[in-house]
């Protein structure tokens, strides 16, 4: 598929479209051996040899980013008035076709995957694939003694979930679906409203040492693992 040269270079993390436009006009970019000064030049980024200052660049069609979403940020690609998860990405990780996989509430922290691979996003959010999501919840009241049994049976008609009590007012929960405010609604139904919520794991992906607000690209192993989890190896 043919794309504009400035878009391709921006996707490679070389700067905004405006910034890479300057590089192109300055003659720093070659396509298949020839200097191209037209930022709208159309090329197939997977087939063309692109060079910046005589160094070849590698273009990856699919791109996946792991973000530790902080509280107070909207899981959306754009908003008139609020900071979105896309606003948090540094230039080198930003691409205009990245989309969040599922949603974390504004007040929820934790692991959020962003991808530009539509089929991966579709499968990861489809109930058929039952991708495990693990959350740490802190609660405003003590858990009832039968909390784990009730989660296992399915609270409020949600699919069965696993609950591990960590203390009277903290628990780790594993869900295999992702409905709107599901964890908060499930705990509220037990009479123990959530006061803090963080997603620690999404399928095979873990937060590791990523601090709130930080992001990094998936490693090759992580990409293989998440694709395998939904039959896309
Ligand atoms: N469940 C919730 O209640 N909130 C989230 O952000 C994710 C799961």
Identify the bound ligands: uracil
CATH architecture of the largest domain: 2-Layer Sandwich
Q: What's the overall average pLDDT, rounded?
A: 94
The whole-angstrom Rg is 21 Å
Low-confidence stretches: none
H/E order of the elements? EHHEEEEEEEEHEHEEHEEEH
Examine the coordinates and then state which fold CATH places here, giving the name of the CATH topology of the largest domain. Alpha-Beta Plaits
Task: Give the overall form.
Answer: elongated
Oligomer: single chain
Q: Would you identify the CATH H-level superfamily of the largest domain? A: Pseudouridine synthase I, catalytic domain, N-terminal subdomain
* CATH top-level class of the largest domain: Alpha Beta
Structural class: alpha+beta
Number of structural domains: 3
Helix content: 10-25%
The beta-strand count equals 15
Description:
The chain is an alpha+beta fold and 233 residues long. The chain has three domains: 3-56, Structural Genomics Hypothetical 15.5 Kd Protein In mrcA-pckA Intergenic Region, Chain A, CATH 3.10.290; 64-127 and 208-229, Alpha-Beta Plaits, CATH 3.30.70.580; 132-202, Alpha-L RNA-binding motif (Alpha-Beta Plaits). It contains six helices and 15 strands. The chain has helices at residues 5-11, 17-25, 118-124, 147-153, 182-189, 220-229; strands at residues 3-4, 29-31, 34-35, 42-43, 50-52, 55-57, 64-69, 99-100, 109-115, 133-139, 162-167, 170-175, 194-202, 205-206, 215-217. The strands form three sheets. Strands 7, 8, 9, 10, 11, 12, 13, 14 and 15 form a nine-stranded mixed β-sheet that branches. The chain has a four-stranded antiparallel β-sheet with strand order 3-2-5-6, with no helix packed on it. Strands 1-4 form a two-stranded antiparallel sheet. It is elongated. The model has no long low-confidence stretch (mean pLDDT 94). Uracil binds at residues 104-105, 108, 181-184, 197. Uracil is lined by residues 104-105, 108, 181-184, 197.
């Amino acid at each position: 598929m043919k794309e504009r040269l400035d878009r391709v270079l921006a996707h490679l993390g070389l700067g905004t479209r405006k910034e890479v436009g300057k590089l192109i006009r300055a003659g720093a970019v070659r396509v298949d051996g020839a200097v191209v000064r037209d930022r709208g030049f159309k090329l197939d980024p997977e087939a063309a040899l692109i060079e910046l200052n005589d160094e070849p660049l590698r273009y990856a069609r699919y791109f996946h980013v792991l973000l530790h979403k902080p509280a107070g940020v909207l899981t959306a690609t754009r908003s008139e008035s609020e900071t979105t998860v896309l606003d948090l990405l540094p230039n080198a990780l930003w691409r205009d076709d990245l989309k969040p996989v599922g949603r974390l509430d504004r007040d929820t922290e934790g692991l959020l995957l962003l991808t530009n691979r539509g089929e991966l996003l579709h499968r990861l959010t489809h109930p058929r694939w039952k991708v495990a999501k693990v959350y740490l919840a802190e609660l405003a009241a003590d858990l009832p003694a039968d909390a784990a049994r009730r989660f296992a049976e399915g609270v409020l008609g949600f699919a069965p979930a696993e609950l591990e009590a960590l203390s009277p007012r903290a628990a780790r929960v594993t869900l295999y679906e992702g409905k709107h405010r599901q964890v908060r609604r499930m705990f509220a139904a037990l009479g123990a409203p959530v006061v803090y919520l963080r997603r620690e794991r999404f399928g095979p992906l873990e937060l590791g040492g990523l601090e709130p607000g930080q992001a990094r690209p998936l490693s090759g192993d992580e990409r293989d693992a998440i694709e395998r989890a939904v039959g896309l190896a």
